[in-house]
């Protein structure tokens, strides 16, 4: 996987790049916001993940995140020393997919990188990368986060899209409620279960295909491929 590392500290970038390389990542290093944006033009989707440090010398990291989101649907993980909840919420509202607070454990960072990339890009059995998932009349474009039914665009919220994309990775396979909550909402709080039910109901309504997402009582949900 190609990864864009946006970090102004060369020593930190060199150490982290070495670790990521050992885990199979092809790292491109950008030292500031302008270099990051240039790396994403014209084809930002060539990267699997953007690892964005917020303490940049030329631009505010939040501003850079907003610009990246306008260029590409590539997952963005913010890295910062700001641990307050308000900062995290602000970053997520700007389009970040995850938020890591310094100092962080390398294992946790790697797990978060894999988690956000699984929600956006998945590989088929031959190892080729799919960017569009087709399920009968439903078309899911992963890089642009667009969904259509019979050619008509369907407007989904960020979490609705993440939920649908997760289930679409493996049609027919049951995803446990705990797994869905962990991957889409990145929490284990049991109270999120009601939120999950609401999002499933909203998806069924917006797609006008109530049978597409099946409830497996006591376990979770699965996506039923049309014709299956």
Automatic annotation (TrEMBL):
Give the Response regulatory domain ranges. Answer: 2-117
**DNA-binding region as annotated in the record:** 130-225
Database matches in SUPFAM superfamilies: CheY-like
Q: Which UniProt keywords apply?
A: DNA-binding, Phosphoprotein, Transcription, Transcription regulation
The protein, known as: Sensory transduction protein RegX3
The superkingdom of the source organism is Bacteria
What SMART domains does UniProt report for this protein, alphabetically?
REC, Trans_reg_C
Where on the chain is 4-aspartylphosphate found, per UniProt?
A: 53
Query: Residues in domain OmpR/PhoB-type?
Result: 130-225
């Amino acid at each position: 996987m190609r990864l864009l590392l946006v970090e102004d500290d060369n020593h930190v970038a060199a150490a982290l790049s070495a670790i990521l390389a050992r885990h199979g990542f092809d790292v491109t290093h950008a030292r500031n916001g302008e270099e990051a944006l240039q790396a994403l033009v014209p084809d930002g989707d060539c990267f699997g993940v953007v690892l964005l440090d917020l303490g940049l010398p030329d631009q505010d990291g939040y501003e850079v995140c907003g610009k990246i989101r306008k260029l590409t649907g590539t997952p963005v993980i913010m890295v910062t020393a700001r641990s307050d909840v308000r900062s995290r919420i602000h970053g997520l509202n700007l389009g970040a997919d995850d938020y890591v607070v310094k100092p962080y454990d390398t294992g946790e960072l790697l797990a978060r990188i894999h988690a956000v990339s699984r929600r956006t890009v998945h590989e088929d059995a031959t190892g080729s990368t799919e960017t569009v998932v087709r399920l009968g009349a439903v078309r899911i474009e992963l890089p642009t986060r667009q969904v259509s039914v019979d050619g008509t665009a369907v407007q989904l919220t960020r979490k609705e899209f993440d939920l649908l994309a997760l289930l679409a990775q493996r049609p027919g396979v049951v995803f446990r409620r705990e797994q869905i909550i962990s991957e889409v909402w990145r929490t284990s709080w049991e109270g999120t279960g009601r939120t999950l039910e609401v999002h499933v109901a909203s998806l069924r309504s917006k797609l006008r295909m109530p049978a597409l997402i099946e409830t497996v009582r006591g376990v979770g949900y699965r996506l039923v491929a049309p014709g299956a």
